[in-house]
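Researcher: I'm comparing several assemblies side by side, and this is the next one on my list. It has 504 residues spread over two chains. Same procedure as the others: predict the full complex and return the structure.
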Amino acid sequence: MTKLQQTKGILFLVGIGPGDHRDMTARAIAVLRNCDIVVGYSRYIDLVQPFIEGKEVISSGMSREIERCSLAIAAACRGKNVALISSGDAGVYGMAGLALQLLSKKKLRDKIVVEVVAGVPVVNAAAARLGAPLMNDYAVISLSDLLTPWEVIVKRLTHAAQSDMVICIYNPRSAGRRRQIREAQAMLLQYREKNTVVGIARNVGREGESVTITTLGGMLRYKIDMLTVLIIGNSTTTLCAGAMLTPRGYKL
Amino acid sequence: MTKLQQTKGILFLVGIGPGDHRDMTARAIAVLRNCDIVVGYSRYIDLVQPFIEGKEVISSGMSREIERCSLAIAAACRGKNVALISSGDAGVYGMAGLALQLLSKKKLRDKIVVEVVAGVPVVNAAAARLGAPLMNDYAVISLSDLLTPWEVIVKRLTHAAQSDMVICIYNPRSAGRRRQIREAQAMLLQYREKNTVVGIARNVGREGESVTITTLGGMLRYKIDMLTVLIIGNSTTTLCAGAMLTPRGYKL
């Protein structure tokens, strides 16, 4: 008797971009349209609704990443093609890493096919709305100390500040985490001028999008929350016809 | 007599992603399909050929960015809708900043509409192919000292190395610039172990794509050129079932 060839399930780790469907990649859209099951944080599931109508959906609330990831892996192990979605890029503070870690821990890696589908990171979409603040070297740092000790974050911020790289800040503040952005600002002011150009982008690509250009000294006057990214300019960052610009060294 | 309303030309600064059409955003594809004129480095024009058939194209060779940018601006000032393309994200070592600088210098900013169209940065596409190396804080640094003094680059690398951020390296080596990657490696080895995990991605999303996972000590044994990006892991980066992974602090 011939054994039927078993086709492995595929786990796609999909970055859906910042939120606006036009910023999704063709590959992300195709994966969502063609998969069997979509798994994600309920807010992100809402963002991709037009592409997944009629599909099986597994969604849950904030900070239940491990649960969602385990459910997605289990479905792929049953032979399903599963899209586990993250906002922005699945590889930047998203679900790609957790999925690999869990697959390894559960010794299930060779049971399924895994594909990471890169998306436009939120900070790059924010930069596009602000102008061109990331034209020179930059650091990307999350202020959330839920998964990284605060001392480590401070050390990174301190080095980044001294290096004169542009600094992109994710997760600057949440309802229960209000101190970090104040401490970060105070630390940055030790190395950068008060009038350093700062871009604040909230809800990029989503309802209520707002983009503000201000200064390092003045930035705390604006609304900053979990859906905000900040871009702290380097010493050469300027306002250029209303846009935030970090020039490269072109001789014009 | 009623004066006809003059419609302003639009200059789109379009990131086309790493090269594979599936990694382009829906917005980038739509802009290319609908614009009047496409301007870009000839190699990138080839990459988007299917979307621009029959359109007017202005292309030129490498390092003629200022010329291309000026031609794109001039066309937009004549009322045309112009797509000036960059690979990856137009806002990361791309054309967005130069366009804003030139518009400001020529005092033409209010003559046209400008829109930056973010794309998947090459390094994020590389990360997806390698696994999930950018799940924690990272720095993006170009080794090209054509536009940034080498001392500034070394200072940034040194701080990034000490901060234990993952380090993404653009433009590691060209035909005429071979010393920088050796110096960078020597410097990084002062702060990171020889067996630090390093990902090397060449021609991501293009013909001849290759992806290698090696170590900081061994990385110079592999082919590294202008179409290569390197991702230097932090102290926690590991190999996880054949993939490069920088874990976040989830308790599993």
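Model: For your comparison table: The radius of gyration of chain B is 20 Å.
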